[in-house]
Design a protein that fits this description.
Strand content of chain B: 15-25%
Strand order of the largest sheet of chain B: 4-3-5-6-8-7-14
Number of helices of chain A: 16
Structural class of chain B: alpha/beta
Radius of gyration of chain A: 22 Å
Radius of gyration of chain B: 21 Å
Largest sheet of chain A: 6 strands, parallel
Shape of chain B: globular
Distance between the termini of chain B: 15 Å
Helix content of chain B: 25-40%
Shape of chain A: globular
Distance between the termini of chain A: 69 Å
Order of helices and strands of chain A: HHHEHHEHEHEEEHHEHEHHHHHH
Strand content of chain A: 5-15%
Oligomer: heterodimer
Number of helices of chain B: 16
């Protein structure tokens, strides 16, 4: 697909019906991103990371996977969960860390999604740790008679994370101990401020695949149809051979790294504006749909309007909800029998709360934010 | 250990030693923070008015233990302070200033790490690449083990390596290089090789909204790695002097900078080259009734707690026994966590008979455990109360629960009162 949504001569279009094509509309992700970014700016949530510019890579790969392929993300893959129907409300709840946040019970920063029902493993902040884990997940799939030859483990990571030792270990394990692992490198050009030209001297991430004996494809990550085709084929090989396959999607991080970053300290605003204008993955796909007569301006307006309403509604709901119970400080550290130190520390905090909870302002204000107002601890009398 | 009980006022008064009681009316600490407790939030409001900080030129130049390293290495050390200048700096600017001096005076010195070239995510390397060139100040690929290993290699060649690990939460991929390599380099080579010129700077501790992976204080994990030094500065003057000492120390040093202090801690900082001693604790507030020991961010919570103890706001007054309000608490900044200043701590505890240790890392096998063990074996007969540890719980740092996990002034106040009243 070229810059204005025409299929390039000689290119093979992926199998695509109208309904599927429209569903793949990437409108929701930027609407979510924009709202969540803005409410972080207003101090309503603590942190956020957008996927601006990478929508085609995330949504295109998501569409190529089976809904029950196991996904291990890095953090910029909300689009996969939205594709799988996790829902706007669940994402809002996670960002607010409210009582409906099942992903981490309010324990992790925003964007640390996860849902076993959606076969999406919980995000962890340390980079690249998910990559060797994906090889293990894939091996477990291979050993499961019900899923062998059917599912793969898809692991997402940035070109920066691919510098970590864990990347090399993951690739090596997936090839040596053959495990159907689909490595999806989102090469967005930046690791926070560090441009990819300072991240590697070789030919990107794709060049490494051969060294590990892993079949590799590089794709225009801003062409959602190309991403879809490449990932479908990579996935097919991965599942059929039971081995690792690497997809490198070349894209561009239009947004700042996160809400803690101001990227104009290290790159020109004009560069970003040019990218948004010339190589916009959403515009390219929209033009493609229009060219086919599958999409119109009024469809676009209608969809955006209704999505914005949905997102606003979810935001309002999430904002009004309280946090999980205070006693969840101590739950889930261990499964099974709780060790004595945790029991005692829960009691220690209980005593402190009873003594100071109503008179120490920082606590008094904070306790009200929990759905139990702290009663899950305070009520636990001894 | 059993959970602490809450001491009643009567019991508190009864259990204080007569000598303590006699001092209570005299001792009235002049403390920094206002009477009302700080609001909930991710910053440390107490810092703005902290008496711990040296906000005048005179105070800065008289920093205890300061060692001037003037331009001319042949002339005798200049101990005079007349004519020296200071400049107002926050902690990240002081760190930057120290690295600027190290780079200017030592041609072998290099500064590197993730995102260092544009100034670093906490602005600690701002302008260094422009001033000293990209050969000496540069970005590395995103690999902590690579950064540590590379730094070890540079240092093993006798050159000065100043590495940055972007967050101390992410230091663990470098754990092997630091613990198995840097720490053991000298010993395993029979003293032939060493990596003393390696310094690893890393932002550390909590900010109030960092969650599991931006709140940790991993110093305790390095306690068993003899050969390494672990240093934690509390303020801009300390950061500059301790960092320059760390860079020049003959041992590899991990320098953990409390990130909440980067912007909020502001002092007048001497612009000359100076060092502050490693391995030495500093008494910030002398006292005789209880030793309160900590390092980094919690120092300010401790200062607030002492203020709450001496002059509790109306809301807390009923919970703070009159008899305890005049207690004289000795506040000590440990500064170097490994090897820690056993002598100073023991000397203090032998005078006060009571010790409360505060740290942000969780309790089990935290640094406080090691200190408590040494104190009970060296000062057993002088102890009037069990050594008390105020720490995070043995849980990860859950984002929405942080205010109840990371110890704040009220935790410290309660522990101090209980220990006084034991």
């Amino acid at each position: 697909m070229d810059g204005v949504g025409n299929v390039i001569e000689g290119a093979e279009l992926p199998e695509l019906d109208q309904e599927f094509a429209r569903k793949k509309n990437m409108a929701l992700l930027p609407i979510m991103d924009t709202l969540l970014y803005n409410i972080q700016r207003q101090g309503k949530i603590s942190f956020y990371m957008t996927a601006h510019g990478e929508e085609a890579t995330v949504v295109g790969t998501a569409a190529a996977l089976l809904p029950d392929d196991e996904v291990l993300g890095q953090y910029r893959e909300l689009g996969v969960l939205l594709w799988r129907g996790w829902g706007i409300d669940a994402a809002m709840a996670q960002c607010f860390g409210n009582e409906q946040d099942k992903a981490s019970k309010g324990r992790q920063m925003p964007v640390h999604w996860g849902s076993p029902q959606h076969h999406f493993h919980t995000i962890s902040s340390p980079l690249a740790t998910q990559i060797p884990q994906a090889a293990g997940v894939a091996y477990a799939l291979r050993r499961d008679p019900a899923r062998r030859g059917k599912n793969c483990a898809a692991v997402y990571f940035g070109e920066g994370a691919a510098s970590e030792g864990d990347f090399h270990a993951g690739m090596l394990f997936a090839s040596t101990i053959s495990s159907p692992t689909l490595f999806i490198a989102r090469n967005n050009g930046f690791a926070i401020s560090t441009p990819s030209s300072e991240q590697y001297f070789g030919d990107g991430i794709a060049a490494r695949g051969a060294g590990y004996g892993i079949d590799t494809i590089r794709v225009d990550g801003n062409d959602v149809l190309a991403v879809l085709s490449a990932t479908r084929e990579a996935r097919r090989k991965c599942v059929e051979s039971g081995r690792g396959v690497l997809v490198e999607a070349m894209t561009y991080r239009v947004g700042h790294h996160s809400t803690s970053d101001d990227s104009f300290a290290y790159r020109a605003r004009q560069e970003v504006e040019d990218r948004k204008r010339i190589d916009n993955p959403i515009a390219r796909y929209r033009l493609f749909l229009k060219n086919r007569g599958w999409w119109s301006d009024s469809d676009e307006d209608e969809l955006k309007e209704s999505l914005k309403k949905d997102v606003m509604r979810a935001f309002k709901t999430a904002e009004g909800l309280k946090r999980h119970e205070l006693s969840d400080i101590f739950s889930d550290v261990y499964g099974g029998e709780e060790p004595l130190n945790l029991k005692e520390q829960r009691e220690e905090l209980t005593q402190l709360l009873r003594k100071y909870g109503t008179v120490w302002e920082p606590w008094k204000a904070e306790l009200k934010k929990f759905k139990d107002n702290g009663e899950s601890l305070l009520g636990r009398s001894k | 250990m059993t959970a602490p009980s809450i001491a009643s006022t009567a019991r508190a008064a009864k259990r204080l030693s007569p000598s303590t009681l006699s001092r209570l009316s005299v001792a009235r600490r002049c403390n920094s923070t206002g009477a009302e407790p700080p609001p909930a939030g991710g910053h440390l409001p107490s810092i703005a008015t902290s008496k711990i900080l040296r906000t005048t030129r005179e105070a800065a130049l008289r920093t205890p233990g300061i060692k001037w390293l003037d331009e001319d290495g042949n002339s005798p050390l200049q101990n005079t302070i007349g004519g020296r200048e200071t400049r107002k700096m926050n902690l990240y600017q002081a760190v930057r200033d120290a690295m600027g001096i190290a780079l200017a005076k030592d041609d072998t010195a290099i500064v590197f790490g993730e995102d260092v070239a544009f100034g670093g995510v906490f602005r600690c390397t701002m302008g260094l690449a422009e001033e000293f060139g990209r050969e000496r100040v540069f970005n590395t690929p995103l690999s902590e083990q690579g950064i540590a290993g590379f730094g070890i290699g540079v240092a093993s060649m006798g050159q000065t390596a100043i590495a940055e690990i972007q967050f101390s939460d992410y230091i663990f991929p470098a754990f092997d290089q630091l613990v198995n390599e840097a720490a053991k380099f000298r010993y395993r080579s029979g003293g032939q090789f060493n990596v003393g010129r390696l310094t690893v700077r890393t932002p550390s501790m909590s900010v109030g909204h960092g969650g599991l992976y931006h709140s940790q204080s991993p110093e305790g994990f390095f306690m068993g790695a003899s050969g390494l030094k672990i240093v934690v500065p509390r303020s801009p003057v300390q950061a500059k002097g301790l960092l320059l000492a760390s860079i020049r120390d003959p041992n590899p040093v991990i320098f953990m900078e409390p990130k909440i202090l980067y912007r909020s801690a502001v002092e007048q900082v001497p612009i000359d080259d100076f060092e502050l001693p490693l391995g030495r604790a500093e008494v910030l507030v002398p006292g005789a009734d209880l030793t309160l020991l900590t390092w980094g961010t919690p120092l300010y919570h401790c200062e607030t707690a002492l203020s709450l103890l001496a002059e509790p706001p109306a809301s807390l007054a009923p919970l703070v026994p009159e008899a305890l309000r005049g207690a004289r608490i000795e506040l000590i900044d440990l500064r170097t966590v490994l090897p820690w200043d056993v002598e100073s701590v023991i000397e203090s505890v032998q005078r006060t008979g009571r010790l409360v240790i505060v740290h942000e890392a969780s309790r089990t096998a935290g640094v406080g455990a090691e200190i408590a063990a040494e104190v009970q074996s060296r000062a057993f007969l002088k102890l009037l109360a069990p050594v008390r540890r105020v720490t995070a719980w043995d849980t990860p740092v859950g984002l929405q629960f942080e205010k109840f996990i990371i110890p704040d002034a009220i935790h410290v106040l309660d522990a101090v009162m209980e220990t006084l009243a034991f």
